[in-house]
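queue> holo job accepted (FE(4)-NI(1)-S(5) cluster)
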Amino acid sequence: MAKIKSIDPAVSEMLEQAEKEGLSTAFSRAEDMKPCPIGHVGRCCKHCHMGPCRLMKPGQTGVCGATIETVTARNLVRMIAGGASAHSDHGRDLALTLLAVAEGEAPDYRIRDKGKLLLMAEYLGVPIKGREILEIAQDVGSKALSQFGQQTGELLSVQRAPKPRQEIWRRLGMVPRGIDREVVEVMHRTHVGNDQDHESLLKAGLRCALADGWGGSMLATDLTDVLFGTPSPLSARSNLGILSDDEVNLIVHGHEPTLSEMIAVACMDPEMIEYAKSKGAKGINLAGICCTANEVLMRQGVGTIGNFLSQELAVMTGAIELMVVDIQCIMEALSPLCERYHTSLVTTSPKVHIHGATHIGFDEHRALDIAKQIVRMACDNYPKRGKTHIPQFQTELVAGFSHEYLNYLMGGYYRGSFRPLNDAIMTGRLRGVAGVVGCNNPRTSSHDAAHDYVTREFIKNDILVVQTGCGAISAAKFGLLAPEAAMELAGPGLREICETLGIPPVLHLGSCVDNSRILTTLAQMANEGGLGTDISDIPGVGLAPEWMSEKAISIGCYFVASGVYTIMGGKSPVEASEVVSEYISKVWEEQLGGKYEFIEEPEEMVARSLAHIDAKRQALGLPDYDPTRYGASGDGMLLRYLEAVEKGEPASLYSTKGL
Ligand code: NFS
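queue> job finished
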């Protein structure tokens, strides 16, 4: 039987359609071109023009004498620098936007979450007493910006990590000094003729990753919350079925929230809706792809039509009038594909120009005007729409779980707390926690399959799952972000918790920069007490089962450096060196309490995660995980009782026996 390319029925339907029409996709291109077996596992060094050198035989070195250890470590840390620069540059732009708002130069934006601004002021050391909110915002913006160019000292947000963690970083010389400095230093160290010691290269790599997670990404998340609101739960829909047959379909794609938030405003403008109607459409349907989708989903409830591998297939529906992109994860294949349809591809970032696309440079000084111009362009395309093929699959979801909301959820407005979560883990009602994040990759067995498998296994085993990025979109499409999923799929302890709190068993925490929400959440769990004193004590794991981007490598590494056992799917990019592979697993675990492993089989990912979580429970002296102690309360119990009664089976509401 042929390998199923995707477990998403909408994607499968579109792939059939693509085949019928003879169109290439990332799936077909990945099949036609196998990854380079030399570079894929880190054997290739192409940092100078004496090479590329291929280190194929044991003991073989590059022309300069570089060993396989140096080459694999260099390649890995350069990936970290690439990922960290992408997340951090995104954060920098938001700091500039906040400054523009504070200085009255971005009239269409405002400070939406003053509480979050004050929190930022606190950790950035900005005085607040007796000051106007815009004055504080100006200082927060400048201070945030200064973190990128800082040359010495420590990044201020490092203080948000548990104290023992900060001490580990200080002891190892791993505290980031400035965000840009760490990225530049990795680029410098990996230039020909520099750092030739894999240990020191890898240390610099982790410091750079920390500058991403606790620096650029954390600032990006916090600044976005200040400008557009800290998320709280809302419902929305996902998958290609939410494309409309009779409305203008406008898709936002990429990662930045600044323009997409304005487009969301413009799409609700009665004047724009009238304009759409004047073109024969019933209205305007705004939806998203990738992390821009996550940004507007988390705050505005805008639906998501899919994750990374859906972008080309969405255009092939013929139902998209316009796709507006900002930065990152935008396939170059989109432009020629859009030309085959009536779809306009619009680029907006000065950093992303795409041949064949229309460039409308984004300018926060006249954001709403630009957003309206783009909406009008989409409407103008509607009469040109030809035959469409929209797969009829969609699901309901609940998103919007910020760190702040989790506090509120468990303790109310005045007594926000993580006590109930820690207690649940301590008693064994919850076995542990897991973050399942990251991309899609056509090289994995089936699109979304690994995400879906590990997530279902975790919740079945009473592990509360948090997600971001394309992983979260995968969970959305398969109904795992719906509260009902707890009733059907969660283990007994997790189900009871979900019922009590009214939450899904899988919590959507946002875009990929919002992995920083997982960091601050873990820090609070460690500080709350009962689960040790550091992040590495917590029974938890992090996984990116279908990763492909450099950003995912950086994310994985900052989780390891924060003390989390982190599993990446697929082949290891450092497989060529046993020494480096062992270093990032065993030595990093000894130093930091977190290890970095690449595991191809989802079953193995789950097995190792469960073993790790149980070992952490044991180290804390917590009771062994025992699901039979829970599940005798709540609606789930009642439902199973009613089901048993209906089938004429023995049932009792007062005992779990026989149910
Ligand atoms: Ni993260 Fe978001 Fe998706 Fe991967 Fe790309 S969209 S930033 S990199 S592919 S999860």
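queue> DSSP finds 25 helices and 16 strands in the chain.
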